[in-house]
Amino acid sequence: MALRGSLKDFGLADILQLIHFQGKSGVLTLEGEKDRVKLFFVEGNIVGAISRRRQEDARLGKILLKRGYIKEEELQEAIQEQARTDKKLGSILLQKGFVDKEHIKDVLTGQITETVVQIFGWEKGTYEFTPQVIALDTVDEKEVSIILDTQHLLMEGLRILDEWSLLEGKLTLDTVFVKKIETPIGLSEEELDILSLVDGENDLSTIIDISGKDGFEVATNLVSLMEKGVIEPKSAVPVIETPKPEKKETAISYSLISIFAIVLAIVISILSMFFSTANKTKNTLKGFIASKMVENLKYKIETYRFQHNTYPDSINTISNILDPWGRPYIYYYGNDTFTIKSLGADGKDGTEDDIY
Known about the structure:
Elements: E1 3-6, H1 12-21, E2 26-31, E3 36-42, E4 45-51, H2 56-66, H3 72-85, H4 89-95, H5 101-119, E5 126-131, H6 150-164, E6 177-179, H7 189-195, H8 204-211, H9 215-227, E7 231-233, H10 256-308, E8 330-333, E9 338-341
Antiparallel strand pairs: 1-5, 2-3, 2-5, 3-4, 6-7, 8-9
Helix pairs in contact: 2-5, 5-6, 7-9
């Protein structure tokens, strides 16, 4: 029987743990707003990933070329043969001796990891796991078998999610950048390295693959370049000023003092509403981030218990992260249970805005 449901009710971390600890083989299909992803499992470990949005073969060829592992003419020859035979690009490159097996394996491992990690950021979607026998050559190059430890990938995904929460709203793995300044000055060596990979076609995930650097490091450098005005997102829409409404004549005549008093009252009223709404929106966003972090901390606590047969004595044993209001998370435990929470916007324990 297939396992299916909503990611709101049963998160990705819980699904992956269940498949891993039960040693299941099969296909996990995840449907989100922007993508449809299939993860392939053999005895609880991930052996392949397919994304509808990401053309992995095309990215594989581009990354191998950009890293200097293959030549342009070799890639074109392999692509032409792929069109005739419908074989996987990696298999063709290996059979022709154009690239080493380890280079293929390195790139494919990175692609699978990125595909899984980006799902951790999904706020909503559906999942369905179908148990079945998986042949490795149906999801990957037959000559390159990739088996990723699901538990390790879980920890890596949550670590990256922790880091990337600092960059929330600035970029995603699909963001494509274009250069605004061709010969910038005053950049660090790391920024110049990353800037050389910005060509208006490579998205963030491809730049990470090509660079071979840590994803968060690459993203941080791109944000720095963006803040310095060197690059901008390709999809950026110019800000258009809203035309000021035309003044209308009023039929009623007021004295100057009366008009001033009315305008002042309106301005004060609008400002009060604005700041009230802004604070509510800000706290709502912080509450969402806090709830995500509580989920991550719960998983880390359970993982610690699984490894050490006891809960950690202190939350600092597994993380020193503060909640979005700059306060430590509240943690305590008993023999068979634990509690981890944020005190919310008011900072008071036991109130309605506590986040578990």
